[in-house]
Specification:
With 113 residues, the protein is mainly alpha-helical. The protein is 53% helix and 0% strand. The structure holds heme C. Heme C binds next to helix 3, helix 4 and helix 5.
Amino acid sequence: MMEAAILPGRRRFAMRPSFLLVALLLALAPDAPAQSPSRGELLYTTHCVACHTKEVHWRARRLATDWTSLAEETRRWQRNVGLNWSDDEVEDVVRYLNTTIYRFPDKAPKQTG
Ligand code: HEC
C-alpha cells in the first residue's frame, strides 16, 4: 500500500490533502518523536491551537461537560474554521482531547457513518 510507504504506522489513515500535508511536515521534522502522535493530535495541533491553548479546556465554566458536548463543540469549531472534517476526524480529535484533558467516559461508537 502506498500509505505504508509514506507512513510506517499501522493506523488507519484517510489520505486527505490536509492530512497528507501534516504527514509530510511530520516526516520532514528533524526531531519527530519515536512514537508518532495520533491523527487526532495532529489535526488538533495543526488547526485548533492557533487561538486557544489548553487553558480554554481547563477553565471552570467549560462548555464541554461530557463526551457528547465535547463532540458537539469539536464539530462546531471545525465548522467555524471551515475544515469540513468527517465524523471520523471529529471523533479522533475528541478522543485526543478526552485522553489528554477531559477524561470523560468514552461514549464514542466504534463505527461512525
Ligand atoms: C478562532 C479561534 C479558535 C479556533 C481556530 C478554534 N477555537 Fe476552539 N475555542 C475558541 C474560543 C474563544 C473558545 C471559548 C469560547 C466559547 O465559550 O465558546 C473555544 C472553545 C472550544 C471548546 C470548548 C472548550 C470548553 O470545554 O469549554 C472546544 C472543545 C474547542 N474550542 C475545540 C476546538 C477545535 C477542535 C478547534 C479546531 C477545529 C478549535 N476549537 C479551533 C477559539 C477557537
